[in-house]
Amino acid sequence: MALRSDWSARNCSIARGLDILGDPWSILVLREVFFGNGRFDSMKSRLAVADSVLTKRLSGLVEAGLLSKRAYDGGGRTRQEYVLTPKGEDALPVLNAVVMWAEKHLPAPSEQAHMFVIHAGCGQRTSSADTCTGCGERLTAANTSWHSLSRSEAPVRLATAARQFTTQKGAAA
Predict the structure, then answer these.
(1) CB 149 within 8 A of CB 51
(2) How far apart are CA 71 and CA 80, in angstroms?
(3) Chain segment 65-107, per-residue pLDDT in tens
(4) Distances (CA, A) of 169 to 151, 162, 166, 172
(5) Residue in 118, 152, 158, 151 with CA at minimum distance from that of residue 30
(6) What is the distance of C-alpha 49 from the center of its chain?
């Protein structure tokens, strides 16, 4: 999902990564899915985004293999929600790094606008995108929470590909 052109064949790893993750809407969509919010209408409401923009970003993230679709019963009709794949879950340190950089360098418009990365294992806020600075354990979606003060009073455990695929397989059985 290139911003201006196709960077997928560039010799630079950063350029190739930006081809998928360089669009702000794509990162915000991933944030919602990590928060467990993978349904179109709910994402649209939370992001205040146009249908066409959200549809394009979701399609691009599915095509790139970061998200997959899972059927659910939406009031008598089958609808699709978006869940992380293992490849999508591997983007967590990128999102964590954005959170930490913004908290360090950008003023928040209010006290409720802060967000923190919490290692659920030891309960400590971390200042590293991939390792808990409190205990040294590697951060994964399974052991990480995000505390968005505008979203909830307590940290929220992140969705993981493993939990979502287990649920998906269990629902199919």
Answers:
(1) no
(2) 5
(3) 999 999 988 788 889 999 999 999 999 999 999 999 999 999 9
(4) 30, 10, 5, 5
(5) 158
(6) 16
Q: Which of 51, 54, 68, 61 is nearest to 1 (CA)?
A: 61
Q: Which two tokens stand for residue 83?
A: 């869940």
Q: First-to-last CA distance in the chain?
A: 34
Question: Which residues does residue 70 pair with via DSSP β-bridges, in sequence order?
Answer: 81
How crowded is the C-beta side of 37, counted as CA atoms within 13 Å? Answer: 15
CA-to-CA dists, residue 89 to 55, 104, 138, angstroms: 20, 24, 14
**Tokens in use for 42?**
């709910």
pTM above 0.85, yes or no: yes
From the centroid of its chain, how far is CA 104? Answer: 20
